[in-house]
Amino acid sequence: FSWTCLFYTTHFYHTLLNKPEMQYEMETSSSNLSAVLTREQGLQYYRTMQTMRRMELKADQLYKQKIIRGFCHLYDGQEACAMGIEAGINPTDHLITAYRAHGYTFTRGVSVREIMAELTGRRGGVAKGKGGSMHMYAKHFYGGNGIVGAQVPLGAGVALACQYQGNNQVCVALYGDGAANQGQIFESFNMAALWKLPCIFICENNKFGMGTSVERSSASTDYFKRGDYIPGIKVDGMDVLCVREAIKFAADYCRAGKGPIVMELETYRYHGHSMSDPGVSYRSREEIQEVRSKSDPITMLKERMLSNNMASVEEIKEIDVDIRKVIEDAAQFAISDPEPPLDELCNHIFANDLPMEVRGTNPWVKLKSVS
Amino acid sequence: WKFLPSPQRNSGALLAGRPVNVRDALNQAMDEELERDERVFLLGEEVAQYDGAYKVSRGLWKKYGDKRIIDTPITEMGFAGIAVGAAFAGLRPICEFMTWNFSMQAIDQVINSAAKTYYMSAGAQPVPIVFRGPNGSSAGVAAQHSQCFAAWYGHCPGLKVVSPWNSEDARGLLKAAIRDDNPVVFLENELMYGVPFDLSEDVLQKDFVVPIGKAKVERRGTHITLVSHSRCVGFCLDAASVLAKEGVECEVVNLRTIRPLDVDTIEASVMKTGHLVTVEGGWPQYGVGAEICARVMEGPAFNYLDAPAVRVTGVDIPMPYAKILEDHSVPQIKDIIFSVKKVLNM
Question: Among A14, A32, A76, B199, whose Cα sits 20 to 30 Å from the Cα of B124?
């Protein structure tokens, strides 16, 4: 079926009209585009988003049981962003994000088992237990990055490599509303625009950087306009189809060598900033409840499919049951898999190097490190 | 044209030698590596059309063009991050900091994005990048442009940190660094750029590399070991010449690499001479010399020491501007001679 998505854009309108020159405009225009969803796609998006949701809720449980420790930044509420992006790019494209990364780790191809085992710090984790929540990697997925904003220049660098190698690939570089004020992001905008790097800069605006609302952190909360000379698109990040269509447009634009695009996905996180934040001291429970009841991305997709007879209630239920099994199995694995062996402690310091000695905690402890 | 004495060469036929200054050695090394591997590229401020702020990249832009030699805006954090990202995605960048002082703007990308990634990813994501530029004191550039970063970067696992002294070091270590699949911090020295050294034919071979992590004994001696890196190696050799006239034979060890530190070579030397003086341009506290002394204390060489090991370092102050003050802020040959005599109880 087709659905109409409303986009707010800068410059976008002119591009649509195929005006050759990019006019710098402070005003925004809005555009309506249609998106088409097939039954197959709908079921796939539903399954993926629901898996992400259940995985994050299971992580919440395990964290409260102290089986997951340290930092744990959960993604529930924002699933349409990760799903929409993945639906709009190719597996051979590239993606990098910050620390709220479990959803992207999944959409970029890592199994729930390997993600959960990494969260519990076991040898079966995607980073063998050495990275944890914020440092998971996959092919064409560069993490999981702990330093706010640092991933954006890295993403621009991946885009540079795409351009250099002439492989027609793009890089999606994500950051939050909190990171959006980082200087290095503007440095990246400058170089990406100057060199026309195929980079899609995406601000996932979930309205809060930790406990600081966007109004209290940013002189301008129009994050899609922050790219100034770079065209910007603002998208409803709770609507997986809108996200997908916007990404498709942006990816085509970048692949055509026209330079970077800045995108703002308006979204919401149900959990606090991390597991150590109850998330209600700086926002009301009513607000969270309202988003859940009116704008939940998974509910919205399900209701569209049901009301358009694209799927039955039973089918959806079956998927849910299936996902529950996958999550349970993954959690079981994550709890029972042993921790990494101690002789792995010093490995992976250097790549493609001869084995070397690493000093232990005292001069008599000499540990071995292999690549 | 200042010709430094190069006593007792241990390798290469001097007959075939021709003088190449450190700048040209670096330039030739980069040229050859750019030619050898199309994934190698150079980015930094003024590296292309200006031929390099210190002319180290002279001629490279003309030869290789915009794609491989990239002038960046003055945005260290941004372009260092871009360089690391390019390394993630399959390229082999050389990221130049105009001086290492400016790397402080980008140090998070060097440490948290480059150095730690191979470990955090349990070997999934190597980072084959070289960060290079002039390090340490220069002449009259004052406090903000004179800091030595050997100790700071040398502190961090996941980095290789090298500090060449002469042209052979510069050429061989830069080639090794570019061919290395890991992040390498390459600390040059501005005052050494114009200094010529004879390079033998085998050093001039295209595949000549100096192994990272191996120190070189530049001068053999029996009474005392001097361990140094970068420009101070030359001062140690000069001090050794003066001391030789008084019958003191110094063994001079050129570290070449700060991390990983070649403790074996240092220990072997100290076990032979029984005395140790470290010499560096950087500040004393928590410095390179401090690490060397600690390692000697903890290892077999301690039992061979006939006197406590001492450090000759820069003075523990921000670098002043006035020439007389600057000259007294860095180790001079007389400081090395004085310290040697103190350690030898002369």
Answer: A76
* Least confident span in A26-40, A329-343, B72-86: A26-40
Are B167 and B234 in contact by the 8 Å Cβ rule? The answer is: no
Instruction: Assign residue A259 a region (left: φ > 0; alpha: ψ between -120 and 50; beta: otherwise).
Output: left
A317 CA to chain B: closest CA distance, Å? 37
Average pLDDT value for residue range A35-59: 96
Chain B residue with Cα closest to A124: B122
Q: Which residue spans within B32-166 are E strands per DSSP?
A: 40-44, 69-71, 92-96, 130-134, 160-162
Q: Do B81 and A150 touch (CB under 8 A)?
A: yes
ipTM over 0.90? The verdict is: yes
Q: Are A116 and A59 in contact (CB under 8 A)?
A: yes
Assess B247–A contact: CB distance below 8 Å, yes or no: no
Backbone angles phi, psi at B257, to 5 degrees: -120, 130
| pTM for the structure as a whole | 0.94
CB contact under 8 A, B160 and A347: no
User: B203-209 long-range contacts, Cβ below 8 Å, gap at least 24?
Assistant: B203/B12, B203/B168, B203/B171, B203/B172, B206/B32, B206/B36, B207/B175, B208/B171, B208/B172, B208/B175, B209/B172, B209/B173, B209/B175, B209/B176, B209/B179
Closest partner residue to A356 (CB to CB) among B124, B125, B260 is B260
- pLDDT tens figures, B317-330: 999 999 999 999 99
Taking an 8 Å cut-off on Cβ atoms, the answer to whether B89 and A94 are in contact is yes
Selecting from A137, A171, A356 the residue whose C-beta is nearest the C-beta of B124 gives A137
Facing A191 at nearest CB: one of B72, B126, B182:
B72
